[in-house]
Each structure stands twice: as structure tokens, then as C-alpha cells.
Amino acid sequence: MKTDYFKQKLEEDKRVLEHEMGTVGRPNSAVPDDWEVAPSEIGMEADLADQADVVMNREGNAAILADLEARYDAVLNALRRIEKGAYGICEVCGEAIEEKRLEADPAATTCIKDL
Ligand SMILES: [Zn+2]
User: CA-to-CA distance for 2 and 26, rounded, in angstroms?
Assistant: First the structure.
């Protein structure tokens, strides 16, 4: 198992995801490793149409952030499994996960037949 190689890929993914989350949200100061949508300037807009735009934008950002956060959690979990020496083991059958599957998704938790 090329654990160091996959660890590098995971750490690269983590940096990219943190950067992407930073464009739509900010770290939640109350919960470690949790992110929240950046506050918008609702109420400051001149008219209702602009306020509607802000709400739409905020909802869009929340959806984007939820997706990024799910991927981020998976990456953090994979890094934790590396630390515990349990990386690359299928959660369903306990067999080693195929390297080509980890190549496609280093945060994968199941082998190809247990997808
Ligand atoms: Zn399996």
C-alpha cells in the first residue's frame, strides 16, 4: 500500500477544499473542523429584488458548502485512518481497497465490489 503517496494526495485535496470552502464560507469558530456560510449583507440592499438576489446567493452557497464539507470530512477521516494504520481497508468486507479505486478517490472507504 502506497500510504505516503495517498496521504500526500489527501493533504493536497484538503488544502484545495479548504481554499474552496473559504470562497463561500468561513470556519465555524464554535465547532472545530466545521464550516458555515459567510454572513451576507442582507437588509443593506436598496430594494427587494436585490434582497432576493442575496437570499438566492446565500442558499446556493450553503448547498455548495455542504457538498465541499462532505468531501472535506471524508478526506479528514481518511487521514485519521492513515494515522491509525487502518487506511485502505474496506469498511464492509475488511479486505484491502484496490489501489486504482484509491487513485480515483483517495478518501474511499469501501472496495469496488462493496460500492
Ligand atoms: Zn469490500
Answer: 33
pLDDT digits 0-9 by tens, 57-99: 888 899 999 999 999 999 999 999 999 999 999 999 999 999 9
64 CA to centre of ligand 1 in angstroms: 30
Nearest to 109 by CA among 83, 90, 84: 90
In the chain the domains, ranked by start, together with CATH numbers, are 3-24+49-114 (1.20.120.910)
> What is the 70 CA–ligand 1 centroid distance (Å)?
21
Are 4 and 87 in contact by the 8 Å Cβ rule? The answer is no
Contact 108, 95 (CB under 8 A): no
Name the residue among 56, 91, 98, 73 with its Cα closest to residue 21: 73
What's the gap in Å between 87 CA and the centre of ligand 1?
Answer: 13
Considering only 9-13, 32-36, 83-87, which range has the smallest mean pLDDT? Answer: 32-36
